[in-house]
Write a structure and sequence with these properties.
Blueprint lengths: L1 H5 L3 E2 L2 E2 L7 H19 L7 E4 L3 H11 L12 E3 L18 H7 L23 H18 L5 E4 L2 H10 L24
Parallel strand pairs: 3-4, 3-5
Antiparallel strand pairs: 1-2
Helix pairs in contact: 2-3, 5-6
């Protein structure tokens, strides 16, 4: 039954495409905001750069998670919308992203160059496998580390994307709860 509904654009007048946060999800984002507030007050360094998935529920989570925090002037909150950071592509309509115009009109976040107006990756016929998602997220991380010299980076993404980012990094499996936060230490080494 869940597989049936996952492929629909709408049910009972409610849009399922690019699923939005529920009230429960907004509460989880506020919990993440509290966690950041406490950690920063305890001395955790502020992120120097931010990345966020282009799916609406992640954009909203990012906005709520960081709203109201007193960002230092040299480390402003400017999350970059990145296509490759998103959840699994295909089949499930909740993972089909909204248009670039919708994102730009609803979130004041810079969108990466080359970002297509309509979702170029979602198809009704193929659901991205874990291996395919790992390859995509490895490419995302390579792109970030190639151009971003920040020491402290925040990424707001989906549980499946986070799970596979950790796998790409060689991190142990970690069951991150919805709305949860995990700090990860990465040593970057440039390889020819």
């Amino acid at each position: 039954m869940q597989d049936y509904y996952a492929k629909l654009d709408e049910v009972d007048g409610k849009t399922l495409v690019d699923a939005h946060l529920t009230n429960k999800g907004k509460g989880q984002a506020r919990t993440a905001n509290d966690a950041w507030r406490r950690a920063l007050a305890a001395g955790m360094p502020w992120p120097e750069s931010y990345y966020v998935s282009p799916l609406d529920r992640c954009l909203e989570t990012c906005k709520i998670t960081f709203e109201g925090l007193d960002f230092p002037g040299e480390r402003p909150f400017v999350p970059k919308v990145r296509e490759l950071l998103r959840e699994v592509y295909g089949v499930h309509t909740c993972d089909k992203r909204s248009s670039k115009s919708y994102i730009a009109s609803n979130y004041p976040f810079p969108i990466e160059d080359g970002f297509a107006e309509e979702d170029p990756f979602w198809t009704a016929e193929h659901r991205e496998t874990d291996k395919e998602q790992e390859a995509r997220l490895r490419k995302f991380l390579d792109q970030v580390f190639e151009v971003d010299d920040s020491t402290y980076i925040s990424m707001t993404a989906h549980s499946g994307a986070i799970r596979n980012i950790l796998k790409v990094l060689g991190h142990r499996e970690f069951g991150l709860q919805t709305g949860g936060v995990i700090p990860v230490l990465i040593k970057r080494t440039t390889v020819a």
